[in-house]
UniProtKB/TrEMBL annotation:
Residues 1-20 form the signal peptide. Residues 31-187 form the Pectinesterase inhibitor domain. This is Pectinesterase inhibitor 10. PANTHER family: PECTINESTERASE INHIBITOR-LIKE, PLANT INVERTASE_PECTIN METHYLESTERASE INHIBITOR SUPERFAMILY PROTEIN.
Length: 194
């Protein structure tokens, strides 16, 4: 009888212990969500940061590298979608674009495409980064490319000297990807400094 009670208590302890260690427990979910919130507060755009990364909290856990990589992937996907949207706008006859607007849009598409290319290179390099002798050089390359992508986004907006609804629409799209790029760069800088 004592042996049976002992086994029941042991089994109960094991079940309780395993349940509390499970990666899907509310406590772990809370910790990973808290990590995202605290990390996002250190960026220039905390609300956008939280909105864009909240769904990835359980994947990121509390890893600075996964946080930087995920932020970079979110930025890459948004930038690629924006590039496609800008291309569609440039050929949309219903908008009745003026020649100057078409030219500005095409230049903007080129700048955003450059951003896509730089972000793609950054993702590959960041994924390949490991602590070691080449780490600083790799991270320097990533920081340079992501900074260049941010500059490309700014240059896109500089091309729009005309006023009007197209400029407002393009600005809304490009400002969002510029802010996401800024967030990713902040996390990359933090990871590089670890």
């Amino acid at each position: 009888m004592k042996t049976l009670i002992f086994l029941c208590i042991l089994l109960l302890c094991l079940i309780t212990h395993c349940t509390s260690c499970s990666p899907t427990t509310p406590r772990t979910k809370y910790n990973t969500s808290k990590y995202i919130r605290v990390s996002c507060r250190q960026t220039l755009y905390p609300k956008l940061c939280q909105r864009s990364l909240a769904n990835y909290a359980t994947k990121i856990k509390t890893s600075p590298k996964l946080l930087a990589t995920t932020a970079l992937l979110v930025t890459f996907n948004a930038t690629r979608s924006t590039s496609k949207r800008l291309r569609e706008l440039s050929v949309n006859r219903a908008l009745k674009l003026k020649p100057g607007e078409i030219q500005a849009l095409l230049e903007c598409v080129e700048e955003v495409n450059d951003s896509v290319y730089e972000l793609r290179k950054s993702i590959k390099e960041l994924n390949d980064s490991r602590k070691g002798p080449e780490f600083e050089l790799r991270m320097s390359d990533v920081q340079t490319w992501v900074s260049a992508a941010l500059t490309d986004d700014d240059t896109c907006m500089d091309d729009f000297t005309t006023r009007g609804r197209v400029r407002v629409l393009v600005r809304r799209l490009v400002v969002r990807i510029a802010r996401l790029t800024s967030i990713a760069l902040a996390f990359i800088n933090n990871y590089a400094a670890v």
